[in-house]
Write a structure and sequence with these properties.
InterPro entries: YtzH (IPR025547). The chain is mostly helical. The protein is built from five helices and no strands. Helix 1 packs antiparallel against helix 5 and helix 2 packs antiparallel against helix 3. The longest helix has 18 residues.
């Protein structure tokens, strides 16, 4: 069973907000964030979403986190951004409609 775009956005929100709240995470979570962003960017509604303005920075955050030797410090460095990104994901979710659910 594949995830719908809303499921993917929910997972992305969970990961980003968890990093923001706990100021900790893992390189594997950063890998998952990067994969989710890649898939979501291919959705037809993506360019009209508020999320579009943040995905490049979010992907850079994820890729830098994947190679970080101190993941908690990396997350702490992006603390303010993580909170903004989480709100952007939450605000954008209703704009995405899957063709087949």
């Amino acid at each position: 069973m594949s995830l719908t775009t809303k499921d993917q956005l929910g997972l992305l929100y969970d990961l980003i907000s968890l990093h923001a709240e706990e100021c900790s995470g893992s390189t594997e979570e950063c890998e998952q964030i990067s994969r989710l962003i890649t898939v979501i960017k291919n959705h037809p509604s993506f360019n009209q979403s508020a999320l579009a303005a943040h995905t490049q920075a979010m992907d850079r955050y994820a890729k830098d986190g994947m190679s970080s030797t101190d993941i908690d410090m990396h997350i702490h460095t992006y603390q303010n951004d993580l909170e903004k990104w989480a709100m952007s994901i939450k605000d954008s979710t209703p704009q995405f409609v899957d063709e087949v659910e």
